[in-house]
Amino acid sequence: MPHLDERLKKVAQQIRVTTHVDIGSDHANLLVALLRSGRVKKGIAIENKQQPLLHSQQALVGLDAEVRFADGLDGLLAGEADSLSICGMGAENIVSILERSPERIPEFVVLQPNRRPDLIRRWGFASQFHLVDEQLVFGHWPYVILTYRKMGHEADPAFQQIDHQADLLLGPWLLQRRETAFVELLLEEQSYWHNFTQISERSLERRDAIDRVLKRWYPL
Asked: Is the domain of 10 the same as that of 87?
């Protein structure tokens, strides 16, 4: 069984279905671990470059899995898989993949962007996917793992409307749990942003959201 780093371990722990599809699997470590542990019965890896395609084909030999050469969800039929993962990409690329073929997205989705998880949260909120879990994992830098389930048109209860902007930027489940590592990360980021006299509008928006949250938690 391949060694999974902490972020992929957390991703794997979210998944227990019959058929799982992983887009951009590279060496297919996640799919191999899911198949060998029995958490999934069948795996589908989708790659759009030849070298990662070969890596995945080699890793999945002898397992109930197939590797497809395609661009994102173009390689999947609607209803063919029970769950989907996309890990290790920028959020812009992940959202682009999801928005190009929304009818092919399985009902259960686990996403691990390398940056800008707020873009993933905005996608989910606009696409009737409810954020059922999010976790902070530390590796080369802090990663956020976001788990979604398709729930229809009702409002996502994870977003409590106390501070919708802060929920989108910082994560509603992370804010509700208020775990020590997350609080320390916010305090560190707050200190970092306040060292600048001029920052971009997007950075200012994030800094202000952190200020509001920490002021609510630790009023003077």
From this structure: yes
The pLDDT averaged over each successive group of 10 residues in the chain (220 residues) is 84 97 92 96 95 92 95 95 96 97 97 96 95 94 96 85 93 96 96 89 95 92
141 and 184, same domain (yes or no) = no
Determine the structural domain holding residue 68 and report its residue range: 6-153
Task: Please list, in sequence order, all residues whose beta carbon lies within 8 angstroms of the beta carbon of residue 82, skipping any fewer than 6 positions away.
Answer: 17, 18, 19, 20, 106, 107, 108
Sign of CA dihedral 169, 174, 178, 179: negative
Structure tokens at 89: 């990409």
Note the pLDDT of residue 153.
Answer: 76
- C-alpha angle with apex 186: 12 to 193, nearest 5 degrees? 125
Q: What is the domain-level CATH number for residue 65?
A: 3.40.50.150
